[in-house]
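A reminder from the course coordinator: this example appears on the midterm review sheet, so study it carefully.

Given structure:
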């Protein structure tokens, strides 16, 4: 997890969700003003704010932030940069939670492919994406594929415990 995301989660733990979202919006605005609307750090701020809204179940607020974050990061860093993977996973998680499985699956697949190319198939972030993808597989009746992916994710995590 990125340092800024850890900082955001600490802030959430101390001041609560509503105050954290209010505190995060001005930070994102300051980044846009200081760095310009297409800077990769702006994408990171938008991703973090989307993650916060997602944690609150505010998917309608989170989704456009994830989409804007993805557009900025793709333009600034390229379509295969590892920084895109958390945003893709966030979008996939939202789609899955709303039953939009056909939209979610290619997002999980792309996130996994990016992470595996960048860090290898045994990286802990790969396991995190696999967890969401396995849930999608299970929810769509593909239990054998889900079990295989869950086992693979569990094996990856066991290497880092």
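Designed residues:
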């Amino acid at each position: 997890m990125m340092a800024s995301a850890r900082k955001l989660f600490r802030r959430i733990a101390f001041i609560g969700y509503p105050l954290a979202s209010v505190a995060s919006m001005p930070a994102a605005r300051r980044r846009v003003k200081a760095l310009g609307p297409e800077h990769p750090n702006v994408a990171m701020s938008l991703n973090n704010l989307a993650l916060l809204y997602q944690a609150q179940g505010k998917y309608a607020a989170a989704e456009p932030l994830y989409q804007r974050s993805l557009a900025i990061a793709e333009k600034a860093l390229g379509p295969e940069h590892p920084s895109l993977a958390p945003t893709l996973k966030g979008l996939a998680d939202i789609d899955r939670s709303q039953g939009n499985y056909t939209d979610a699956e290619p997002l999980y697949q792309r996130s996994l492919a990016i992470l595996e190319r960048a860090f290898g198939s045994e990286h802990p972030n790969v396991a995190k994406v696999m967890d969401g993808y396995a849930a999608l597989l299970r929810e769509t009746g593909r239990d054998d594929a889900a079990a295989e992916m869950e086992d693979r994710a569990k094996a990856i995590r066991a290497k880092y415990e």
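The radius of gyration is 16 Å. Residues 1-78 form a domain with the Serine Threonine Protein Phosphatase 5, Tetratricopeptide repeat fold (CATH 1.25.40).
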